[in-house]
Specification:
- The complex is a heterodimer of chains A (106) and B (122).
- Chain A is built from no helices and 11 strands.
- With 106 residues, chain A is an all-beta fold.
- In chain A, the strands form 2 sheets. In chain A, strands 2, 4, 5, 6, 9, 10 and 11 form a 7-stranded mixed β-sheet that branches. In chain A, strands 1-3-8-7 form a 4-stranded antiparallel β-sheet, with no helix packed on it.
- In chain A, strand 9 and strand 10 form a beta hairpin.
- Chain B has 122 residues and is mainly beta.
- Chain B contains no helices and 11 strands.
- Chain B has strands at residues 3-7, 11-12, 18-25, 34-41, 48-54, 59-61, 69-74, 79-84, 93-101, 109-112, 116-120.
- In chain B, strands 2, 4, 5, 6, 9, 10 and 11 form a 7-stranded mixed β-sheet that branches. In chain B, strands 1-3-8-7 form a 4-stranded antiparallel β-sheet, with no helix packed on it.
- In chain B, a hairpin with a 7-residue loop joins strand 9 and strand 10 (109-112).
- The radius of gyration of chain B is 14 Å and the shape is globular.
- Chain B starts with a strand and ends with a strand.
- Classes of the chains: A mainly beta (106), B mainly beta (122).
- At the A-B interface, strand 5 and strand 10 of A face strand 10 of B.
Chain lengths: 106, 122
């Protein structure tokens, strides 16, 4: 099983600032990596796929980078609606998710 | 716009079989090249993929659950279903259905159901 490790577990950032979330895979997943946003009581929402492609309707302030085993999700200027839990997921070999990063208001 | 909706009992007794159905609207479940998956999330925890079924009917399951899981499809009703046998309290979770592509570069989950809470308790 490919283990996905996200850091930090919790990130406190002020609105308008930049947030950088990290995800590491236990072995290479190429660029077969997605990021999801989940708000309380809601299903996850696809933000990024292919490590760096934004899903339909996702604002340009969300960007993804990386390949192989190291990946980053950057939110350039945090809006109030961006405070949520973010999960990375690999789909190179079956599917596994990271444990999530909670992005909270500082 | 594709929409998915889970349905089924919210309470299941230990050792019994959990049964859920996902109804797909806004498109035919048998058209296109997709895998239809089940994913679960215990309260306050992360996401675990349970298994998937292809539009052609082929299935794959998470090895950690393989012996207890069956996923099937009913194309006439535009639904796919999950059965998880011999449940314990550890199977208590919100269960989601989701759609993913059938190639390695399109396999991300682009559409999700809203989720349904299943509690295992006597």
């Amino acid at each position: 099983e490919i283990v996905m490790t996200q850091s930090p577990a919790t990130l406190s950032v002020s609105p308008g600032e930049r947030a950088t979330l990290s995800c590491r895979a236990s072995q290479s997943v190429s660029s077969n990596l997605a990021w999801y946003q989940q708000k309380p009581g809601q299903a996850p929402r696809l933000l990024i796929y292919g490590a760096s492609s934004r899903a339909t309707g996702v604002p340009a302030r969300f960007s993804g980078s990386g390949s192989g085993t190291e990946f980053t999700l950057t939110i350039s200027s945090l809006q109030s609606e961006d405070f949520a839990v973010y999960y990375c997921q690999q789909y190179n070999y079956w599917y596994t998710f990271g444990q999530g990063t909670k992005l909270e208001i500082k | 716009q594709v929409q998915l909706q889970e349905s089924g009992p919210g309470l299941v007794k230990p050792s019994q079989t959990l049964s859920l159905t996902c109804t797909v609207s806004g498109g035919s479940i048998s058209s296109g090249s997709y895998y239809w998956s089940w994913i679960r999330q215990p309260a306050g925890k992360g996401l675990e993929w349970i298994g998937r079924i292809h539009t052609s009917g082929g299935t794959n399951y998470n090895p950690s659950l393989n012996s207890r899981v069956t996923i099937s499809v009913d194309t006439s009703k535009n639904q796919f279903s999950l059965k998880l046998s011999s449940v314990t309290a550890a199977d208590t979770a919100v269960y989601y259905c989701a759609r993913g592509g059938d190639t390695v570069v399109t396999a991300q989950f682009d559409y999700w159901g809203q989720g349904t809470l299943v509690t295992v308790s006597s």
